[in-house]
Design brief:
Largest sheet: none
Structural class: mainly alpha
Helix content: over 70%
Mean pLDDT: 83
Shape: globular
CATH class: Mainly Alpha
Low-confidence stretches: 2-7
CATH superfamily: ABC transporter involved in vitamin B12 uptake, BtuC
Number of domains: 1
Order of helices and strands: HHHHHHHHHHHHH
């Protein structure tokens, strides 16, 4: 990963304040805007139900999903020393999608069981990638990335086969979910993702110094006393778990782990003591704003939030690809 100090940086304090202000502003507008615009006072009984039972849980779910995806991307990019690294490269979202596809096929109660199926699929994909990437010489980043590509390709093929077993109604619901859909999230999903996000932040930030050294090179980091294999394991497992839980609650929302960490590094530099927590906050803002656009663009109908993040993220991916 290339680093340069020729770009303009905010001070971490100023950037943190800007992110906090942006976060609360985004939450307020997201809660008020939608197919039916709301206000904070003189709400009818119906509007109160929309606000407290639908709008607020959905906005909070979008925030914690965005935070989880962004910090996962930031950690993996630092670990792999590649600005193009994304959690989805490692097959975890495909595993979660496969678990969800199975739940659709067997027609279980999606309200309660789908997150369990999706998380189980993500866990199996994580285990498969980790086992394939291990060798007697350790776990190289190249072997890890290649294992992720193989697992992703295989699971995606199985998902395509399973969709042929769905009727038209379930196929439409599954397809919309697969593109990223926060409308099907549950309060249980919100609690699980929130817990995972807080735990993931703690683990990632605890490895910030080690990741800073590993960005220079694994051999140099080892000479400075970093337990390289332990850091790889922690970051890989934590990122995989965060992505798996997020996908189980909201579907596949791509490019968050690519775009957000890059913009944060352009703003405050490459010190992971700042990049990791700031990426988490910026990811929350990014997904909340994207979901708001998805809800109001063609109201009363909705767009998949994953489509909005892809429209923003694809040009960024091309830009990074040319720079790398």
């Amino acid at each position: 990963m290339k680093h340069s100090r020729q770009t303009f940086f905010f001070s971490p304090q100023i950037f943190g304040i800007l992110l906090l202000v942006s976060f609360f502003v985004a939450l307020i507008f997201a809660v008020l805007l939608g197919s039916e615009n709301l206000r904070f006072s003189n709400l009818s009984r119906t509007e109160e139900r929309i606000l407290f039972d639908v709008r607020i849980p959905r906005v909070l779910l979008g925030a914690v999903v965005g935070a989880s995806l962004a910090i996962s991307g930031a950690g993996l990019q630092a670990l792999l020393r590649n600005p193009l690294a994304e959690p989805y490269l490692l097959g975890v979202s495909s595993g979660a999608a496969l678990g969800t596809a199975i739940s659709f096929v067997v027609s279980v109660d999606l309200e309660l069981i789908r997150p369990i199926f999706a998380f189980a699929g993500a866990s199996l994909a994580t285990f498969a990638v980790y086992q394939m990437a291990k060798s007697k010489a350790g776990m190289s980043v190249e072997r890890l990335a290649l294992s992720g590509i193989v697992v992703t390709t295989m699971l995606s093929s199985i998902i395509v086969l399973l969709t042929t077993l769905l009727d038209s109604t379930r196929l439409r619901s599954f397809t919309f979910w697969l593109l990223g859909d926060l409308s099907q999230g549950t309060k249980v999903g919100l609690y699980v993702v929130s817990f995972a996000a807080l735990l993931g932040l703690f683990v990632m930030v605890s490895q910030a110094r080690a990741l800073n050294l590993m960005m220079i090179g694994e051999r140099d980091a080892f000479d400075f006393g970093v337990e390289v294999n332990r850091v790889k394991f922690l970051v890989f497992i934590t990122s995989s778990a965060l992505v798996g839980v997020s996908v189980s609650a909201s579907g596949s929302i791509g490019y968050v782990g690519l775009v957000v960490p890059h913009l944060v590094r352009l703003s405050v530099g490459s010190d992971n003591r700042y990049v990791l927590p700031f990426s988490m906050l910026a990811g929350a803002v990014f997904v909340v704003v994207a979901d708001t656009i998805a809800r109001v663009a063609i109201a009363p109908r909705e767009l998949p939030v994953g489509a909005i993040t892809a429209i923003i993220g694809a040009p960024m991916f091309i830009y990074l690809l040319k720079r790398t």
